[in-house]
Amino acid sequence: MEYNAMELMICIAARNLEDGATVVVGTGAPCAAAMLSQKIYSPNLCILFEAGGVAPILPTMPISVGDSRTFHKAIMASSMPEVMETCQRGMVDYTFLGGAQIDMYGNINSTMIGDNYQKPKVRFPGSGGANDLASLCWRTMMMTVQDARRFTDKLDFITSPGYLKGGRSRYDAGLPEGTGPYRIITNMAVMGFDDETKWMMVLSINPGYSRQDVQDNCGFELKWAKKIDDTKPPTDEELRILREEVDPHHYIIGR
Amino acid sequence: MALGTRDNDTEGAMLSGKNELFTDPDPDKARAFFRNKSRSMTPKLSQIKDVVRDMIKDGDYIAIGGFGANRIPTAIVHEIVRQHKKHLGFAGHTSTHDFQVLIAGKCIDRCDVAYIIGLEARGLSPNARRAVESGTIKLTEWTNASLSWRLKAAAMGISFIPTRNILGTNTFDHSAAKMITCPFTGKKYAAMPALFPDFAAIHVHEADIYGNCRVYGASVSDFDLAKASKRVVITTERIIPHDEIRREPEKTVIPYWCVDAIIEVPYGSYPGNMPYEYFSDEEHLKTWLKVERDPEELEIFLQEQIYGVKDFYEYLNLNGGIEKMKKLRAIEYLINNK
After folding, report:
1. Which CATH architecture has domain B5-332?
2. Which domains occur in chain A, in start order?
3. C-alpha angle with apex A129: A106 to B331, nearest 5 degrees?
4. What's the ipTM?
């Protein structure tokens, strides 16, 4: 079946969420990935929303991470401190973030463009819960279209921590041991991070793209895993469930 | 990347966020205030107009309960704009439509930012963005958990709470948090200063006339907000009998002594979602985003929707009244009654 970049990224993300894990998601693509994963791979994936919803059975895609869908038939309608403290205690495995810029250590900017904080060229919403989730969940993932401006070696603002300056700098800053960026899923490739340097490293290349495409659309030099896999394209089952059950109005996959 | 400024050069110097702390975290000053706050269980039924006129002064620091366009006290937010309250500080904690309205009314001049400007999946507010990009509003950067925990510290009656988020980022650099070391483990923490707002408005499902409240669905940070704030006004979908509160006391999530005034405002979260009652009015919220593209069009819209109406119910009727609410209730209940 034919598919678009958004569908591909959601399917890849869904495969990365194992059964029995916990994941905090926002609205949009991350929520779609978690729902898809639940329906195909991980029926016991526990989805949390930062306003307090725990393990809902989502009837439709939420518009807000605090709307009533986020605790529809849930096991708990709790609070923001409850969810954030569960993350801080080390009980949340995954989260997904978005952002305007990302660097080679997986640091993310969702605050502003420009060099004057009080008078930015472009202002974005800010952290919301992003910094909290990136700081406190074990593994952070990102789904994004890749280009050389978005993947840059110089962020205008570090909203949410990746591996900061690489190596152990994240943990030396006081962030919890063992946490950090895990997978960056783009339209062109899937990246992880080098164990020691924590520099972004390509793990697999998506169908239709070359090594050159992936590097040309990145503003810093990428590292490459010893063995580069071909990303498995979405299966017919993934696409069918994504289109018919997860996002029937194509709010997200139609973008 | 600029690192945070150092407080001093001595051994054990701490890293500090360099932006302004808009509120005083001193717990003894808060205690002095709370010492004189009434604990008598007296009826507190009030009017929106009176509450906003009497309980909010220009320059106060305010917070709004709920989550942006979910369970928000819209009647209070509109009245703040209608009464042209100025120079307010604002807790931009999980705020979306509430911030959008207050910024359109030019009520805010400083803001603790966790999430502003955006309306989640709906997009960004063009007017809020213009206001912030123009540099006229003083900002200090935080996160949703940071503001939740700042309210929790205040609710606990302490001056700060140690947390493990924001460390190492520009979010920390532009906050007013400080880095501290744990006396037991030597671990680094961000110290989040207690946030005691002057005023908070919270919309709930049910309350008695004394202000004992019930909330259904996600509570966000509202229980701590009610405890942390010096003055608290509750708008409620329904006033219920006091006996009902005493029949099931475990359902009380905000006790009367936190509450200064209470107003029954059915449909009071409109155009926001009220869990188990009605869904958000997405068309109306879309209209907001559309008219905001042009400042003149926004002024006309504000005149029509807020300044030119006498109260929340005139606004509600202007936007479809009870017929609209029936539709939004059907959406909330997942009933297909097109």
Report:
1. 3-Layer(aba) Sandwich (3.40)
2. 5-246 (3.40.1080.10)
3. 125
4. 0.97
Give the count of beta carbons closer than 10 Å to the beta carbon of residue B323: 9
A183: Cα separation from own chain's centroid:
8
Distance CA B299, CA B294 (A): 9
On whether the pTM is more than 0.90, the answer is yes
Burial of residue A51, with CB atoms counted within 10 A of its CB: 0-12 exposed, 13-18 middle, 19 or more buried: buried
Chain-centroid distance of CA B195 in Å reads 12
CB B282 to CB A129 under 8 A?
no
Query: Would you state the structure tokens that stand for residue B5, as one six-digit string?
Result: 């400024």
- Whether B254 and B92 have beta carbons less than 8 Å apart is answered as no
Whether the pLDDT of residue B13 is over 60: the answer is: no
Indicate the pairing of strand B199-207 with strand B213-214: antiparallel
pLDDT at B338: 54
pLDDT band at A177; cut points 50, 70, 90:
very high
Neighbour-count burial for B243-262, b at 16+ CB within 10 Å, e otherwise: eebeeeeeebbbbbbbbbbb
Tokens standing for A137? Answer: 């969940």
Q: What is the pLDDT of residues A230-239, one digit of tens each?
A: 999 999 999 9
Residue A161 to chain B, least CA–CA distance (Å): 6
Interchain proximity B275–A68, CB inside 8 Å? yes
What residues does each domain of chain B span?
A: 5-332
Per annotation, catalytic residue among A2, A7, A50, A245? A50
How far is it, in rounded angstroms, from Cα B87 to Cα A198? 45
